[in-house]
């Protein structure tokens, strides 16, 4: 009896399914849940940004990944002597100073609205005889508002290493930046990969205790 | 005197200093905030506090010690109300005296807790709450309390007065109620109500009361919350659940692994350790960002003329752009001044968002002379609403020069359900009938808290096959194939004196492990505007088959809807194939639905239930902006309490979380959970697939305007 029943079910299923066999119909909820979890824990796959795509875009560009989110492209919107403003297609703005450090963000759930610190060039660090430099910096945020969060910073100049970028290999100096606010217990290690001119090609930065790490890689350098 | 003044001044300054840190505290890695008591509702350990989760939150708490282990679901439908449903395992007591009935299983107890916020914490005044523990249960943990909590920087100080179990012990006893309200409050009548299910109002706030207190401290930097309390509950005096109490001081620690998950360890009553965890979610907000509307390249003037002249090209372009947004054209027409579209989507559950995205695309492709874009939204084969947009205003809004409210002022919202665009549209996509759709997935069935074992369940494979024979006429079928179950342990047949319309659940689970869940043919129609009909025939649900129908009057511009459903049904065989049992009946209900203020909805059904009993069901639910819904229901019929048995009347709760809250894209599904504490024959409704209100209830003008801000999302 049991076998008969199973056969009947199979027959109905086969008759209806053969014309429409689509794996999207098999446990779609579970498959989507698996994808969401996979993306959440292991990040999104980069299938869209290629060297060919970059070459076809006439503007300076970088890739940006925030935490385990999807890898996106940001375009240089404007530049002046001290700052570079980059923008993504979904309206996220990043303002970087000439040291490649994020000094403002816009369009995120929590944004860095202000950055007060001594201005310097990465070239000064790599050409100096010292290997570490300490500063005090002040960060200000919106949502929720927080003004002048005191952060102690220590830069350490590392060795030159070969770094694979999207469409090229480059010998770059690793500069580590240890940032800390003792009251919050917020301690992060930012990394910058810098060429001999002081230009930051790649960085991992933590601009806020409320945001995950930002992975930035320059794919087309701004014109001098 | 000077010393006192200086001390007060110093204390004042220190308090001011603490509040200066309020901004920076938001930047700690995790939000260390009040967490669950042992019982699940927000509190310290055994003692409550006046804290609550944010409105629209839901949490699952598991807290284990000896002998009491609590598993709880807690929800906050309002900022001033927190409610819990709890299963308790009492490990030092047997389920029953008869080992043939319940074997070696320990006692299980169900209970509801509720807490109301009376006063929000201010700069000087504390938060005040009043709560009831184990209401409408067996009364084993029955307590009432009034509690005050005040935070001082990272400290949270709580004190209160407890009655019932909370008032049994301690060193400070006081009950102000006898002197305020009379001597009836002097002595507590037993809270224990045997089988439970009724409110023991006479016992509330009566008898001995005790002052309790507690202190919590947040070490936010490390995600820790310390707890210390003076526990006035004394199970030693309980002849149901005796428990040694060696100390009234309990202490514990909670560690926050994330904003939504924390674990706890406590030492209680001087002799027991307790381990707990809390999983919490705030579903009133969608924190996962979703894609913005896709950009549609506006054709140049030559292309626009071509699209105007070649309507087929226009419809194909429209169809393609809409498909990119997972919106499907059901019908369309394009004339001099108006573009009309009938659209459906399984991606957008919100009518205004669906209409907004469809209108944006239509406007991008339409000629500049077009003044109006009309979107007819569809669900199933029903046209649920019509939104006529002023094209100019809509374009301005899409370019950030106008707002959704300004678009609304120049729009018309109405319903023409009997004269749809499907009947008179220029463009109707060709659909080949019969249209067959299917999907399959694993599923779980549960039987929780029975005498045989706490959890009995089945893992099964569900296959749904829907064959659409023509518009409005569909054959729905659903089959289940067993993968694994332990239902063979079920050994508690129904002895109900009434017709066994639901209480034979054990036979259905055991014998119907491979079943036809449903096989019904359904026809739907809207003969007049705002009047909808549905007829169904076949195996309507797992326990009943038959024939019947439903009519719904849903005036689009009103906040109410009225319906009537009637079915002639016969009970299906336990194997759930094509056989039937002897029992047959007629069942039907008048229904009334109303949208109350504050996003509350009420549904009242009155009529004849499956067992022949006559009565009414009231269902109240709260829907948040995200679509997260919390609801409770209760049914009272003319079936006597004795005949109904344990629980006295049918009741339960449910919640529904939109799946889109977990994804980076819009989706229209929900994760739903409903609980009937007991499966009884009284107040049993026929489970109707595709009830008209489930299709049309969220599409009236009130619902669309509720989500109007989503128009441009």
Features:
heterodimer, A: 224 residues, alpha+beta, YmcC-like fold, twelve-stranded antiparallel sheet, 4 helices, B: 713 residues, Porin, GMP Synthetase, Chain A, domain 3, 13-stranded antiparallel sheet, 43% strand
Largest sheet of chain B: 13 strands, antiparallel
Distance between the first and last residues' Cα of chain B: 64 Å
CATH superfamily of chain A: YmcC-like
Secondary structure: number of strands of chain B: 30
CATH superfamily membership of the largest domain in chain B: monomeric porin ompg
Oligomeric grouping of the chains: heterodimer
- Radius of gyration of chain A (Å): 24 Å
Order of strands in the sheet with the most strands of chain A?
5-4-3-2-1-12-11-10-9-8-7-6
The CATH class designation of chain A is: Mainly Beta
Proportion of residues in extended strands of chain A: 35-45%
Which chains make the largest contact? A-B, 37 and 33 residues
CATH architecture of chain A: Beta Barrel
The CATH architecture of the largest domain in chain B can be given as Beta Barrel
Structural class of chain B: alpha+beta
- pLDDT averaged residue by residue of chain A: 84
* Tally of structural domains of chain B: 3
* SS summary, helix count of chain A: 4
The fold-level CATH name of the largest domain in chain B is Porin
């Amino acid at each position: 009896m049991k076998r008969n029943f199973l056969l009947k079910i199979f027959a109905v299923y086969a008759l209806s399914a053969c014309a429409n066999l689509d794996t999207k119909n098999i446990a779609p909820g579970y498959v989507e849940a698996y994808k969401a979890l996979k993306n959440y824990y292991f990040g999104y796959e980069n299938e869209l940004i290629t060297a060919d795509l970059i070459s076809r875009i006439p503007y300076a560009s970088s890739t940006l990944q925030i935490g385990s989110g999807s890898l996106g492209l940001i375009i240089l919107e404007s530049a002046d002597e001290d700052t570079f403003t980059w923008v993504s297609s979904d309206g996220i703005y990043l303002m970087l100073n000439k040291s490649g450090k994020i000094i403002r963000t816009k369009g995120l759930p929590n944004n860095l609205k202000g950055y007060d610190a001594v201005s310097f060039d990465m070239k000064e660090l790599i050409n100096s005889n010292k290997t570490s430099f300490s500063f005090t910096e002040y960060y200000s945020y919106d949502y929720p508002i927080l003004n002048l969060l005191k952060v102690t910073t220590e830069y350490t100049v590392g060795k030159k290493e070969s770094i694979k970028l999207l469409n090229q290999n480059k010998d770059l100096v690793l500069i580590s930046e240890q940032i800390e606010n003792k009251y919050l217990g917020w301690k992060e290690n930012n990394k910058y990969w810098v060429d001999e001119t002081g230009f930051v090609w790649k960085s991992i930065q933590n601009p806020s205790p409320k945001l995950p790490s930002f992975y930035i890689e320059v794919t087309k350098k701004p014109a001098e | 005197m000077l010393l006192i003044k200086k001390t007060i001044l110093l204390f004042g300054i220190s308090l001011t200093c603490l509040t200066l840190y309020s901004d920076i505290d938001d930047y700690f890695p995790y939000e260390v905030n009040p967490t669950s008591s042992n019982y699940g509702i927000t509190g310290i350990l055994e003692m409550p506090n006046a804290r609550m989760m944010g409105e629209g939150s839901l949490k699952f708490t598991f807290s284990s010690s000896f002998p009491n282990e609590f598993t709880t679901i807690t929800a906050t439908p309002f900022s001033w109300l927190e409610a819990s449903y709890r299963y308790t395992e009492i490990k030092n007591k047997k389920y029953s005296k008869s080992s043939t009935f319940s074997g070696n299983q320990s006692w299980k107890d169900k209970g509801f807790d509720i807490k109301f916020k009376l006063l929000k914490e201010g700069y000087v005044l504390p938060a005040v709450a009043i709560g009831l523990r184990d209401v409408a249960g067996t009364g084993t943990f029955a307590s009432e309390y009034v509690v005050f909590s005040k935070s001082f920087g990272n400290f949270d100080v709580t004190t209160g007065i407890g009655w019932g179990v909370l008032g049994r012990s301690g060193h400070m006893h006081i009950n102000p109620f006898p002197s305020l309200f009379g001597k009836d409050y002097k002595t507590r009548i037993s809270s224990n109500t045997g089988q439970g299910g009724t409110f023991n109002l006479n016992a509330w706030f009566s008898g001995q009361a005790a002052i309790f207190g507690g202190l919590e401290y947040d070490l936010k930097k490390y995600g820790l919350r310390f707890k210390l309390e003076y526990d006035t509950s004394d199970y030693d005096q309980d002849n149901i659940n005796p428990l040694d109490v060696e100390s009234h001081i309990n202490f514990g620690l909670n560690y926050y692994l994330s904003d939504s998950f924390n674990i706890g360890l406590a030492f209680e009553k001087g002799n027991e350790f307790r381990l707990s965890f809390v999983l919490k979610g705030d579903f009133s907000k969608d924190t996962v960002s979703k894609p913005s509307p896709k950009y549609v390249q506006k054709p140049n003037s030559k292309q626009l003329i071509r699209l105007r002249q070649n309507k087929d090209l226009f419809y194909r372009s429209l169809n393609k752009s809409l498909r990119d947004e997972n919106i499907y054209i059901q019908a369309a027409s394009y004339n001099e001044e108006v573009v009309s579209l009938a659209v459906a989507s399984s991606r957008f559950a919100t009518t205004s968002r669906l209409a907004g995205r469809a209108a944006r695309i239509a406007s991008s492709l339409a000629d500049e002379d077009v003044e109006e874009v009309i979107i007819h939204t569809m669900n199933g084969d029903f046209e649920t609403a019509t939104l006529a947009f002023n094209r100019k205003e809509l374009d301005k809004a899409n370019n950030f020069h106008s707002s959704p409210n300004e678009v609304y002022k120049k729009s018309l919202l109405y319903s023409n359900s009997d004269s749809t665009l499907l009947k008179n549209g220029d463009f109707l996509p060709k659909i080949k009938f019969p249209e067959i759709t299917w999907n399959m997935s694993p599923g779980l069935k549960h039987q929780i808290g029975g005498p045989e074992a706490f959890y009995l369940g089945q893992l099964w494979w569900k296959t749904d096959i829907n064959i659409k024979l023509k518009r409005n006429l569909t054959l729905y079928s659903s089959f289940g194939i067993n993968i694994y179950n332990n239902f063979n342990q079920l050994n508690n047949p129904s002895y109900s004196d009434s017709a066994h319309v639901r209480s034979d659940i054990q036979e259905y689970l055991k014998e119907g492990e491979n079943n036809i869940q449903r096989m019904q043919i359904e026809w739907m129609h809207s003969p007049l505007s705002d009047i909808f009909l549905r007829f169904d025939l076949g195996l309507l649900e797992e326990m009943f088959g038959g024939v019947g129908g439903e009519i719904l009057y849903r005036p689009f511009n009103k906040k109410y809807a009225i319906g009537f459903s009637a079915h002639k049904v016969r009970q299906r065989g336990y194997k759930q194939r094509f056989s039937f049992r002897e029992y047959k009946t007629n069942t039907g209900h008048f229904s009334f639905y109303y949208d109350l203020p504050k996003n509350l909805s009420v549904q009242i059904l009155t009529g004849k239930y499956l067992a022949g009993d006559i009565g009414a069901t009231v269902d109240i639910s709260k829907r948040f902006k995200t679509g997260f819904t919390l609801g409770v229901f209760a049914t009272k019929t003319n079936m006597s309490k004795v005949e109904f048995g344990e629980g006295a009347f049918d009741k339960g709760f449910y919640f529904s979380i939109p799946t889109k809250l977990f994804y980076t894209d819009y989706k229209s599904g929900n994760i739903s959970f409903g609980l009937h504490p007991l499966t009884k024959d009284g107040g049993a409704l026929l489970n109707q697939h595709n009830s008209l209100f489930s299709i049309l209830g969220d599409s009236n003008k009130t619902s669309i305007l509720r989500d109007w801000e989503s128009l441009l999302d």
